Amino acid sequence: MIKPRSRRGGGRPTIADVARKAGVGAITVSRALREPARVSEELRRQIQAAVDELGYVPDPNARALASARAEVFGVLVPSLTNNVFAEVVRGIYDSLSASPFRIQLGNTHYSGLEEERLLQVFGSQRPAALIVAGIDQTPTSRKLLESAGCPVVQVMETGPDPVDMMVGFSHFDGGRTATEHLIETGYRRIGFIGARMDPRSQRRLAGYRAAMEAAGLFDPRLVTTTPVLSSVPLGREMLRDALAKVPTLDGVFCNNDDIALGVLFECHRASIAVPKTIGIVGFNDLDMMQVAFPSITSIRTHRYEIGRRAVAMALAAIAGNRPEQRIVDLGFELKRRESTAR
Amino acid sequence: MIKPRSRRGGGRPTIADVARKAGVGAITVSRALREPARVSEELRRQIQAAVDELGYVPDPNARALASARAEVFGVLVPSLTNNVFAEVVRGIYDSLSASPFRIQLGNTHYSGLEEERLLQVFGSQRPAALIVAGIDQTPTSRKLLESAGCPVVQVMETGPDPVDMMVGFSHFDGGRTATEHLIETGYRRIGFIGARMDPRSQRRLAGYRAAMEAAGLFDPRLVTTTPVLSSVPLGREMLRDALAKVPTLDGVFCNNDDIALGVLFECHRASIAVPKTIGIVGFNDLDMMQVAFPSITSIRTHRYEIGRRAVAMALAAIAGNRPEQRIVDLGFELKRRESTAR
DNA sequence: CAACGTCATGGTAGCGCTACCAATTGCCTG
DNA sequence: CAGGCAATTGGTAGCGCTACCATGACGTTG
């Protein structure tokens, strides 16, 4: 009356089946799969044969339960559709595809509360590492990260006080560099147009302001922002708003490339000459910036590389050799193009 | 000498701790959390209090192991950065955020082999449902899907032979509609420009060809394709190639909006009048199409909705009431804009 | 009022795997 | 040649949870 197999599991082969077929103990199969070096050549071969024949695939849930560690990277980003994060995520995926680690991707929608909730969920799985976007976690989130018991990498930005590790660049410097470029090129009434205004955009704005004040050009009416999610159509509207406030506007530093593209299209529509009448600078340097007409000056950021480095650092930490450099600044580059070439 | 707790787990509260504190059996705690209706009001309250006090969070790995089902949706897409899939994924995430289900997102890089590998990995977790992009799975992948023992939804396209369920639209019809629109507007030497040429692009091309042949306008030299990943810069190059082959080209149906935008920019650069000299139609209708200058005609597809519907169908199937309609065609809309208004 | 369902609760036995601790063997050292 | 050590293998006992079955306390019914 005993039906040991078939009772619950879908009748899939287990490690015990493999062990029986190979004539070894279950633990040896486990070792052969995870630390081949510790099993003799011969047994390894037998076990591999049994695995192949049965089509055995280890159950990650059982594995996680027994070892109190899931082979999962938790990744938290504020948006899935924003090209910027998509690139970071792609870097993460590509770096992890050859490893045994799976990826658990969470979308916080730029909400601290949602981030806390997801951190709670992710933490309950005992992930191997956590990668989170930004450095402005709520106190609760920070606590959750600190007590996660795994490497943590904050990405996109650098800052003074990492939970564990950081890979990014200075958005403040990026904003300042973009603005200084406009000033140096001869623009004077330079506006800031920013949507979404998350912490990174705030810092870009701060960089803009610093540059403008240093040049004695700052005027609060030059700043146009909205909490609305950034998009190309929004860029168009915002340029209209900005021009309505300051008709003498002769340059704009845009929060990001979507906005910059919208601004460019609106200039075309309103027959405003770019770069002659208005100069435009974007942020992130999506690949369309270089083929736009005119091509758009932008701050190139290394998003894919941020993803790769974050994984590399986490992997190193998991392997036991934490990188000596806990904060990695990947910088950015000003790409001068036609939109500011006058 | 017995240290039952603290031995392995990080000392987190378990269901047994909650049960002890609430003065009930562990199984009752389990039930209170999963099927509250089956536990009396009073015990439910006591248990909730204990849960809150201890900060208990169920271990999803243990849960998955014991119940032979993980609360995970496996999602397989060919690209993470392509806006089209990002929207579908966003729809999936938004629909699932209020549920207990986690999401396991895989990137197949348009590779059948990679899809098989990921399906193997995902399957080993016994997911609650699988959502995969496309209908052209390899025989191996199809077998894996069929034997996954969970609801499966194929998204993006509709076709005659679903593994289980399908949500999408006809890319062939989309391609034909776009091309017919150009023909009706009076364009004659209409090119097809397509990058990446995955199965969906192939079907759009087939739709283009059908429309052109029906009008007696088809000419193989009008078709320009490449296996390279689609991008805006690539659109620019491909228009150049197309014009080099057929200088009399007077219209283009583009594989997707990135290409269309690149084509538009190249027209500006080469001083080709749009829509007068060349008409342009894109595919997907990203939001920038309506603000481009001139605005670009495109085939609007319901990507976010595809994600939502896929989840809704999977959830229904999990709950035991499979939708009577296994194939859902969400259609598309031709958005006529300035780029074909002559 | 005996027989029977229903509801609420609990005990037991795993799910499939790995941490921990032997046990065995062969070889090296003094 | 005793003692020690590394290399290889295995047994046992869980990891934290839930499926399954059992138990008792209530009605409900004929």
Short description:
Two copies of one chain form a homodimer. With 342 residues, chain A is α/β, with parallel strands linked by helices.
Write up what this structure looks like.
Chain A has 342 residues and is α/β, with parallel strands linked by helices. Chain A folds into 3 domains: 15-58, Orthogonal Bundle (434 Repressor (Amino-terminal Domain)); 70-170 and 303-332, Response regulator (Rossmann fold, 3-Layer(aba) Sandwich), CATH 3.40.50.2300; 171-300 and 334-340, Rossmann fold (3-Layer(aba) Sandwich). Helices cover 43% and strands 17% of the residues of chain A. Chain A has 12 helices and 12 strands. In chain A, strands 2-1-3-4-5-11 form a 6-stranded parallel sheet, sandwiched between helices. In chain A, α1 packs across α3. Chain A is elongated and about 85 Å long. Chains A and B meet through α4, α5, β2, α6 and α10 of A and α4, α5, β2, α6 and α10 of B. Chain A binds a DNA duplex (30 and 30 nucleotides) through residues 4, 7-9, 14-16, 24-28, 30-31, 34, 38-40, 43, 58-59, 61-68.
